[in-house]
Amino acid sequence: xxxxxxxxxxxxxxxxxxxxxxxxxxxxxxxxxxxxxxxxxxxxxxxxxxxxxxxxxxxxxxxxxxxxxxxxxxxxxxxxxxxxxxxxxxxxxxxxxxxxxxxxxxxxxxxxxxxx
Amino acid sequence: xxxxxxxxxxxxxxxxxxxxxxxxxxxxxxxxxxxxxxxxxxxxxxxxxxxxxxxxxxxxxxxxxxxxxxxxxxxxxxxxxxxxxxxxxxxxxxxxxxxxxxxxxxxxxxxxxx
Lengths: 116, 114
Known about the structure:
- The complex is a heterodimer of chains A (116) and B (114).
- Chain A is mostly beta strands and 116 residues long.
- Chain A has strands at 3-5, 10-14, 19-21, 24-26, 32-39, 46-52, 60-61, 64-69, 74-79, 88-96, 105-106, 110-115.
- Chain B is mainly β and 114 residues long.
- In chain B, the strands form 2 sheets. In chain B, strands 2, 4, 5, 6, 9, 10 and 11 form a 7-stranded mixed beta sheet that branches.
- At the A-B interface, strand 6 of A face strand 5, strand 9 and strand 10 of B.
């Protein structure tokens, strides 16, 4: 079974600085998708960024980018120019390919605190 | 991507009672997912609900405790039955918009059992 591990229970960053959240996963599949979700205190799960395993190019979305290392099974999220609104719980998630509507497997989450 | 309306947003319930959570989607979707998020924890999948068939439950979750209905392609309910304080969690529904778009979540139901 696939597993997703986030080894940083909590991280903090100063406003305007850069922070990187770590995620590793274990799978025997070659085709899959990876996601980062943000969950602020409102509880709403918000998709931050997604990566297809077959794409070597790292995904970027404005201030958010990933470092996808397929051989190492690593998928870290970099947040640049951190803002107070970035404070939230961040979850890394895995979806097996070929099952576009299959279930997501989530990591344990990382609480990000942004200091003004 | 789909928009989900989840109700209620929160509730405080007496032990031994049941609560039904509703999710309404603004478009037709094949599969809906129900998650539980215990305080400070990650999301755990309870079951997958397909329209017109029995829900598929994950290990550790049973239909008698978490009955699910899926009467059409835009609506589903999850009932938490015979509640105990251990059921106090956030419950979220989710739909897949396809891997290309990620998955959309409802706003969650914060359940407290006293």
